[in-house]
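User: quick one, sequence for these tokens?
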């Protein structure tokens, strides 16, 4: 196991590089989340990332990179897996109602344990297919679990009229843009540089067509 102080230094440096400011309490909670994920992962195989420092870069910092684009008082994280980016965003920017959605029972059990042990208020986890979820949210996040056409086809109904859909992608998905369903518009594309993560990272902001 990597020493927690080493992970804390890595996380703090990464947060600074991203241009963010987080409280000491939030940093502690993020490290608690990483430790919990690593412990559960040994038994339940929740993520292919197994090494602690890689979890900090590829999970924590990768999720935090989209924090400046999150807005509104409610958020749905679709295909959240073990809580990425949902749990990370709930820790870093508390105070909004948040719904974490995944169809995998093991991952949802982990999410509920993380919500309980990290004392995350206003955060719920549901085991469901995206298309069966009800409600509308100011912000919807999705971490590359499907093409833009499928993401919006299955979950577009969850986006509030003036809300923003944040689609996290690796390479810029130019080939997927023609498949964006009618009624939705890609409003902006951002190239993200995540400390410790090689390869391209892009974030697409999608809204309802006025």
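Assistant:
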């Amino acid at each position: 196991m990597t020493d927690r102080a080493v992970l804390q230094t890595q996380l703090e440096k990464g947060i600074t590089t991203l241009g963010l400011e987080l409280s000491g309490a939030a940093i502690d909670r993020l490290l608690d989340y990483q430790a919990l994920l690593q412990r559960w992962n040994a038994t339940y195989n929740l993520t292919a990332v197994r090494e602690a420092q890689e979890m900090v870069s590829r999970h924590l910092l990768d999720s935090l990179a989209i924090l400046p684009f999150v807005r509104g008082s409610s958020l749905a994280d679709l295909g959240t897996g073990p809580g990425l980016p949902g749990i990370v965003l709930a820790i870093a920017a508390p105070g909004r109602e948040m719904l974490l959605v995944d169809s995998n029972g093991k991952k949802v059990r982990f999410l509920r344990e993380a919500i309980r042990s990290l004392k995350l208020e206003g955060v719920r986890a549901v085991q469901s297919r995206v298309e069966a979820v009800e409600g509308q949210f100011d912000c919807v996040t999705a971490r590359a679990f499907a093409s833009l056409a499928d993401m919006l086809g299955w979950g577009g109904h969850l986006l509030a009229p003036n809300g923003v859909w944040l689609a996290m992608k690796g390479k810029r998905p130019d080939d997927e843009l023609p498949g964006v369903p009618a009624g939705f518009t890609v409003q902006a594309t951002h190239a993200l540089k995540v400390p410790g993560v090689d390869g391209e990272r892009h974030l697409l902001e999608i809204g309802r067509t006025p």
